[in-house]
Write a structure and sequence with these properties.
The chain is globular and about 60 Å long. Helices cover 40% and strands 17% of the residues. 35% of the residues are buried. The strands form three sheets. Strands 1-2-3-5-4 form a five-stranded antiparallel sheet, with helices on both faces. β8 and β9 form a beta hairpin. By secondary structure, the chain is of the alpha+beta class. It is built from ten helices and ten strands.
Amino acid sequence: MTTNAFGGLSRQAIEWVESKWQGAVLEQAKPLEGGTSSLLYEIRATKDGEEQSVVLRLHHKGEWLDQEPDLAKHEAMSLELAAAAGISAPHLLAFDETGAACGMPAVLMTKVPGTVILPAANDQDWLDGLAKTLAEMHQHRAHDFPYEYFAYNDARRLERPKWSRVEGDWMRAFYIVAAGGPPSDYCLIHRDYHPGNVLWENGQVSAVVDWVNACRGPAGVDVGHCRVNLAQLYGTRVANEFLDAYERYTGSAFSYDPYWDLLSLIDTLDGAPAVYPGWQAFGMTGLSDELVRFRLDEYLMSLMERFDDF
């Protein structure tokens, strides 16, 4: 066996996978598209006379591991929770929390069927599937899960967005978020729920992937994160249609508050907004940094209007 057939995976990583995937004869590995925060590989093997595949995630970003050194353990526990809750997601095979055995903190999981779909324009059935899947996920309370929600950005420390046409409105949004949010019941949230992490097969959602950041938190955080992604991909109208669909599925179990949308929007800020590379990897064309910034300004103004009316 040579590492040339394994997409650059180290021999240490290959041997770790072999030790955890008992009875498998590894044949090939290839990098998976769409991942930006970690390295993802599909590893193919023959096991029990059949061709099978698993997915290996390697956490390689030192700055992320400095902040959350237990990322591999976190995802492993999240996958176990998803399995116990009956949520369609990869199943955990093994994990290496520190990277001592694999070379990097690692999670080995099953490969679930389906592909990411990013329609060229909004598709109502597609949007409905996204909303229904999220609503079902939020039915789970996850009372004993040790990870709880925290904001990624401190609104009090954010600088005036020079890239925006409405800098003053962004500053007002920062002040609103910094003042604190409403009380909210906690449930299981994915924390990175967006179209790039939802797989489809035969017109139906087949699985939700990328459970690195799952935790207990306000459902509005997941809704808001998906909405800000949809706003960048398709515009504010589609983001609003997603909210409408989600509310249809949740009924009285969900009480909308625009605060969580504002917070989720601000949580995405890390310098001037730009096209997310994963969207391009999944075939979404026609976006530009300028268009994304325009749509974010537009989305912000729609949220401020909601907040004024709330």
